[in-house]
Amino acid sequence: MKLSLAIVALALAIPTASYAQDSTAVSKGEYPNTFSSGSANISPFTNQSKRFNDWSISAGVGVPLLQSADLTSIKNGNGKNLFGYSAYVSIDKAITHAFGINLQYDRGETRQGWFNTKDAAPDAKAVAGRTQYDAISILGDINFSNLLRRVDNHSPYRWALHGYAGVGTIAYRAYQKDATGQRLMTEVKPFKLGSLFMQAGTGLKFKVNRRIDIEGRLMYVVTGDDTFDGGGDPYSEINRRSSQVSDNFFNATLGLSVKLGKHESHLMWHDPLQEIYYKLDVLANKNQDIEVCKKGDADNDGVCDDWDRQLDTPAGARVDGAGVALDTDLDGVIDLYDKCVTVPGPVENNGCPTTTTGPVVETETKLEGIEFDLNSDRILPSNTPILNNAVNYINSSNGSYNVVGATDTRGTDAYNQKLSQRRANNVKNYLIKNGVQSGKLNAVGKGEKDLKYPECEPATKCPEWKNRANRRVYFEAK
């Protein structure tokens, strides 16, 4: 009976969600379409590409109340409630944004019967029990808030409803006390068929910050044993009072979770709408007929005419989110026609400066900038081709360059200044390790004072792709 119940509980804990995506996925080098809010940059979550924490450690304390038994904690013989104590610690692994697995250890003591076993028996007929237990279980953790969330309301999203169910092994020592004194009635060892138990319940979790969560839980524990309450053998005088075949109890706890890892956020707080964006991209790749732009895209620049500020963009020109052709060096010549993309120059000289030695003409290899994840100075794998092109270009030129780091507007000025300097230093070191002479490079951190999109102050005023564009390192000629 207990084994079959355990199998059913384990089956119920298996989640239906099978994907989780990374909302700060690596860019493919394409400018996002403003209609899709950057969905072109969404990729499936994998262990290789993850940038979320998915491990945590939890601990808490609580009060167990024996409810279904011959001797109970609630409304017992004298009409009072007897409160025990409990504690738990667990190691938690998030599998997807909506499902995880916890390995949990519980320890506690239930108190039940007519009186507290710490007190003397009030009369000859009064009977009390207490049970000390230790349990190890595997719990499935379903994040219902992420599983059912369908609308991105731009809220802080700091509350989450969780459901738990699982099986394990329980060991206990049950004592009984009456007017003659206290004695051990039943002792069960762990890791035996007769010690299997299961528990299920719900928890409400609050995100204090990126590291700490607070959670209140209410669990129902099915011991699978009719002697857990200290009533003695199943056919003893005490254990004939109730027809239950299992002594069960509620366990109300308050706990703390510490999220482990170096990343900014934890997978269980991941925005599930990114999964929807990913599925839309999959459909698009299968040439499904999806109406994206109601008014069309007259210049085929990837920006719908509804938002396009330049409806006649030349074919082949890269554009920003508003559909305006890019002009990296702001010299009035768009990059498509600019022979010196990173160096300002007059229109009549194709965007290159005029010097005594003749115009500076870039090769086909352009000095492109790279972008960074939030609160990170790590060079992403997708950026290595860009940086390798920069190595070839700088080595083939006679000039020297500033490697300029920048951030978005999140965080303090002092923190952003240090972060931008680290980004610039990392790129400079990468270039030197790959063959660029150190004398040609100078790393400069400009913090949030050098925004590519100045209108993103604060960051909440802009879509994420603009904030990501502000988190960058680029090159400028000295």
CATH class type of the largest domain: Mainly Beta
Oligomeric organization of the protein chains: single chain
Number of domain modules:
2
The dominant shape is: elongated
Uncertain stretches of 5 or more adjacent residues: 1-45, 274-284, 356-365
Radius of gyration: 32 Å
**Which H/E pattern describes the elements?**
HEEEEEEHEEEEEHEHEHEHE
As a percent range, the share of strand residues is 25-35%
- Measured between the Cα atoms of the first and last residue, the distance is 79 Å
Task: Estimate percent helicity.
Answer: 10-25%
The description of the largest β-sheet is: 8 strands, antiparallel, barrel
CATH topology of the largest domain: Porin
Q: How would you state the average pLDDT, rounded?
A: 79
Task: Specify the CATH architecture of the largest domain.
Answer: Beta Barrel
Count of runs of 4 or more consecutive helical residues: 6
Structural class, by secondary structure, is alpha+beta
Task: Please list the strands of the largest sheet in the order they lie side by side.
Answer: 3-4-5-6-7-9-10-11
Topology (SSEs and partners):
Blueprint: H1 2-12, E1 21-22, E2 43-44, E3 55-68, E4 85-94, E5 99-113, E6 128-143, H2 144-148, E7 159-178, E8 181-188, E9 196-207, E10 212-222, E11 248-260, H3 273-285, E12 370-371, H4 384-396, E13 401-405, H5 413-433, E14 441-445, H6 464-470, E15 472-477
Parallel strand pairs: 13-14
Antiparallel strand pairs: 1-2, 3-4, 3-11, 4-5, 5-6, 6-7, 7-8, 7-9, 9-10, 10-11, 12-15, 13-15
Helix pairs in contact: 4-5
